[in-house]
Amino acid sequence: MKCRKCSQKAVINMRQHKLALCTEHFPEWIVEQTQRFIQKYRMFTHQERVLVAVSGGKDSLSLWDILWQLGYNADGVYIALGIDGGFGYSRKSQVLCKEFATQRGLKLIVVDAPKDIGLTIPELAAITQRGKDKPCAVCGLVKRHILDRVAKEGQYDVLATGHNLDDEAAVLFGNTLSWNIGYLHRQSPVLAARHAGLVRKVKPLCRFYEREMAAYALVRGIEYIYEECPHAEGSTTIYYKTLLNQLETDRPGAKLSFYLAFLQAKEKGLFAHTEEEGFGAGGETLYTCPSCGGPTTVEGLCAYCRMVEKVK
Amino acid sequence: MDTVKIVLRDKDYEVKAGMTLRDALVRLGINRESVLATRNGELITDDEILRPGETIRLVAVISGG
Cβ B63–A210 below 8 Å, yes or no? Predict the structure, then answer.
């Protein structure tokens, strides 16, 4: 198969776009498209300060690499979670993030969550109701809290995450199966800051397939953690992604149109009445946590502070 | 040696040379959307014909918790 642009040998065939590209033109295309999405969804400008949440995985490091190439003012933040899984998962990912930043002369903020909380994520999950049998729920809460805090304290304009189209389609699929209107209402490439303790959140990779981001990382020689988080094994997200890929195999473009048609429907007013009808998660009142100053949907301590207080 | 070794994570598979990578993946029950394939460290598309004696390394692309 040949590259559409130069007739050299293609390294990837994106069937949903009927587009095959070579090792030179594929990364160029990814960078150009990312810039297009940043502008299309009005994510941020070159004058704003961007904080990229990096995990050591292919998506977040690729995102940071793309923003760096595009000349954005983008720092990185890595959260050490204390997950080992028998192969030093957190330690390894931190090293990869540090090496990535050093190679490009970028600033990386490292937050040590176990130092803050006094427990690693698996330890925290084991002793809290929220984490019972599902450390990912605790991990998500801790990460969201720390990312919001670091972005706010560092006076960043925007927090960028490496969510790709497969991530978004899997979430959309899950929320559609349960018709979770509140979450469907909130799902978007850009999430406005609805509280003084939050910054705008953006997903510049939301229209790229996961396969494309892995290919980008390989072609660009980005060293990422190949091993999966030990707690992700058997997760619902992976199950949904597998199902959607089966659909994609038979119908190229199915994942893309599922997600894009959803965004278009939202633009045309789907869920427009959600807030007034009280479905929550989009328009409910946000209170301020008296301990951390972050947002909370109930008066008093936020979910993070309540959890940490219980274990201290 | 008219076989090809295909490696995915810690699993090794063997298929006959001469078929396309796409056919090999179908035969092995591996979803083409869930992997990338490399030959000598270079990415290849799934219309490539597999050569006798070579090793194709697959990179799993799905992640998420």
Answer: yes
Q: Please indicate, yes or no, if residue A277 is contained in any of the structural domains.
A: no
Which residue is associated with the tokens 């490399």? B38
Strand order in the sheet with A200-202: A108-112, A73-80, A49-54, A158-160, A200-202, A190-191
Quote the minimal CA–CA distance from B44 to chain A in Å.
Answer: 5
What domain count does chain A have?
1
Dihedrals phi, psi of A243, to nearest 5 degrees: -60, -45
Task: Please give the helix or strand (H or E) that residue A190 lies within, else none.
Answer: strand A190-191
A11 domain-assigned: no
Q: pLDDT tens-digit profile of A90-133? A: 999 999 999 999 999 999 999 999 998 999 999 998 888 776 76
8 Å CB contact between A150 and A158 = no
Q: What is residue A32's three-state secondary structure? A: helix
Please report, for the domain that includes residue A137, its CATH number. Answer: 3.40.50.620
The DSSP code sequence of A251-269 is: STTHHHHHHHHHHHHHHTT
* Domain assignment present for A41: yes
SS3 assignment, position A107: coil
3-state secondary structure B53-65: CCEEEEEECCCCC
Chain A residues in contact with chain B using a Cβ-Cβ cutoff of 8 Å: 1, 10-13, 20, 23, 57-59, 136, 139, 166-167, 170, 209-211, 213-215, 218-219, 226, 228-229, 231-232, 235, 237-238, 241-242, 245-246, 248-249
Domain that holds residue A142: 30-272
* Prediction ipTM score: 0.96
Place of tokens 């789907």: A270
Q: Any chain A CB within 8 A of the CB of B26? A: no
Q: Does B49 touch chain A (CB under 8 A)?
A: no
Nearest Cβ partner for B64 among A11, A211, A235: A235
Nearest-5° angle of CA A212, CA A222, CA A109?
Answer: 110
* Residue from A15, A139, A241 to probe the interface with B (highest B Cβ count within 10 Å): A241
Domain for residue A67, yes or no? Answer: yes
* Residue B19 predicted with pLDDT over 90: yes
